[in-house]
Amino acid sequence: CDGCSAGCRPEACGYGILECAEECDDGNRVRGDGCSDDCTIEPMAFCGDGRVDPGEQCDDGNTTACDGCDASCRREACGNGRLECTEMCDDGNLAAGDGCDGMCRVEACGNGRLDPGEACDDGNMTACDGCTAMCQVERCGNGVQECAETCDDGNTVSGDGCSATCMFEPDVCGNGVVEMGEVCDAGALNDDVFALEVEAGAMSFIPDPVSRSTAAQFFYGLVSASAHTGYEDLETSNLFLYRDLNTGVVSLFAVHGIDRTTTGIRQPLATVIFQYSGVPSGVSVVISDDGGELRNVGSGLFRGDWNFQDNTDGGVLSGFPIPGTWTARVDPTFLRGIRTFRWVDDPNRFRTLPMSSDVIIRAQSTPAPCRTDCTVPTCGDGIWDAGEACDDGNTVGGDGCAADCRSVR
After folding, report:
1. Burial class (CB in 10 A: 0-12, 13-18, 19+), 305
2. Is residue 323 a contact partner of residue 193, using CB atoms and an 8 Å limit?
3. Whose CA is closest to 68, among 50, 84, 79?
4. Cβ contacts of residue 293 below 8 Å, gap of 6+?
5. Rounded distance between C-alpha atoms, residue 396 and residue 244, angstroms
6. What is the mean pLDDT of residues 12-26?
7. What's the pLDDT score for residue 48?
8. 392 Cβ partners below 8 Å, 6+ apart?
């Protein structure tokens, strides 16, 4: 008992030998196993004994809850995933905006606190008191019709059908009320739906098909491997719709280049690729200049591969249903020899198209109930609306458009 035993072994707690004044020695100096770190016998460990024993997160010497350490010696804190004391919720984190805030209070409209996503919270769910039941500010111009408002168009500008105080303004097309000077007014359903529309990049326009009393393949005028439509031009690709006035059949033409200009300049070596998609069923290739350059590759897909020099090249897809509902897309690739891409309207109107944008041709067969100018789409009004095959401004047949605007015959 002087630090070195009679057998010349160290005398110390934790060697597993009961020596001198030791009450126990279990070969370690760990508390909580019945023999403490000073080799005295430990009393039975329990929550509330004031010692943090193994398995305990805390021990404040009592088993009283809501003092930071609960009756099971677990720490009490918001974010531990247990509902304790005055907590209204505890989702296991301190993040706000998930229904339970960082102080373990329920986040909800009507609690009187401004929680994430709320523009206001007046402590109730009552409407028309300045704060909605969804905790958004009630005001004219927010785009939501509320309380005494008869309209709310998202602004406080008068003269657009809904006044600065969110009341309907009379005599405005689009307010859903047929007023003096209006034939119809379907409100938000007012729309201009045309039989055909073309989009290319930022461009959008109503096409006017080239119309002649001859079949598309004859209008193409293929002679000596060259087209003779009259629209051929140097280093230029032309795209246009063609309508046979004898049959009403609508075709899509692609004509590239020219043999030579009136001044004798010849078309340089050119390579053009067109990918067609969304082509409606029943459309077929009626002209494939040089044979096989324009072909059907299946499932509404067609492809044109054109290589030419000192002449034109191109092809015709025929049988597009008008009236009809379909959207066809032409994806052009100009590798060489072409500097200008154009859309052709009858008789000789040219629109320059972006060379790197798809050309989208959209057909629609169901007109809107009321146009945006509050007039009803009607055969003979000169506007080619959805559902019409043509509209020449009259209801007389035999002049290239039938009396009912359903055909050209």
Report:
1. middle
2. no
3. 84
4. 304, 305, 306, 313, 315
5. 19
6. 87
7. 87
8. 382, 399, 400, 401
